[in-house]
Design a protein that fits this description.
By secondary structure, the chain is α/β, with parallel strands linked by helices. It has one domain: Rossmann fold. It has twelve helices and eight strands.
Length: 256
């Protein structure tokens, strides 16, 4: 019923962590069916849900073999249905992108069908920046969540994030999705971080869905292949993620 794309104009901002935790947060707060799909070739989304590192099969392998996507689905301990990206060599990644460019329905048809199911929310972790896969499903998206950090490399991209031009939305064109921004790794004791936040708040206003503070528990949870709500449920990160999740649920409810 709802398709949410988690994106970022650059890598290294914690996009996949946010996608995994928000999918889990949606499920924990009573959404009937939550599906998490990994369209990032790094194939890391699965690790947040405790999928063994040795298990490398994913949706891309199912597509290549002409199999149903159901072959790639894994039910997590928190009852989120996870579709890992899968493993590909660099050569096969190029071939896959070429195939998707020629036949967009390889991705769009399956994702649209999943998102159309009653009482279902699909959360897609996309590749950083522009990608063929993301551009294929962007017209289907109900909500796009941009993850950024309060650092110079992201601050310089604020105009592109605000207009969504970093995702191919043309200047002056109205985006066909609700666009929200999440600031990750905010550190009030860091001078750059503290200086950046007022500028971010002024520029994005109501687009700002929430802020997740820098917290070592997130890295520790990932190393343990657990979500931070399981690893450290009373940590600052867990509280921040819950607050962002509440805002996301309200955004979803406003769509319907």
């Amino acid at each position: 019923m709802t398709l949410i794309c988690v994106a970022s104009p650059k890598g290294g901002v914690g996009k996949t962590m946010v996608a995994a935790h928000l999918a889990d947060e949606l499920r924990r707060t009573g959404q009937s069916t939550v599906i998490a799909i990994d369209l990032d070739p790094q194939n890391a989304l699965r690790l947040h849900f405790g999928v063994p590192m040795a298990l490398r099969h994913g949706l891309v392998n199912s597509i290549e073999a002409g199999q149903s996507w159901e072959e790639a689905a894994i039910r997590s301990a928190s009852n989120v249905l996870v579709y890992p990206f899968g493993f590909q060599s660099i050569h096969l990644q190029a071939e896959f992108e070429h195939a998707v460019r020629r036949h967009p329905q390889l991705l769009s048809r399956e994702i649209a069908a999943l998102a159309a199911m009653p009482d279902t929310i699909v959360v897609v972790d996309t590749s950083p920046g522009y990608s063929v896969a993301f551009s294929t499903i962007l017209p289907l998206a109900d909500i796009v969540l941009t993850v950024m950090t309060p650092e110079a490399s992201c601050i310089s991209l604020i105009p592109e994030i605000h207009s969504a031009s970093c995702y191919g939305v043309e200047q002056g064109q109205q985006a066909g999705f609700v666009h929200r921004v999440i600031v990750n790794r905010f550190d009030p004791l860091n001078r750059v971080s503290a200086m950046a936040m007022p500028k971010i708040i002024r520029r994005f206003g109501g687009m700002l869905l929430g802020t997740i503070c820098r917290d070592e528990h997130i890295g520790e949870a990932f190393a343990s292949q657990k979500l931070v709500q399981q690893y450290a449920p009373y940590s600052r990160a867990a509280v921040d993620i819950a607050a962002v999740g509440t805002g996301l649920i309200q955004t979803v409810e406003n769509l319907h």
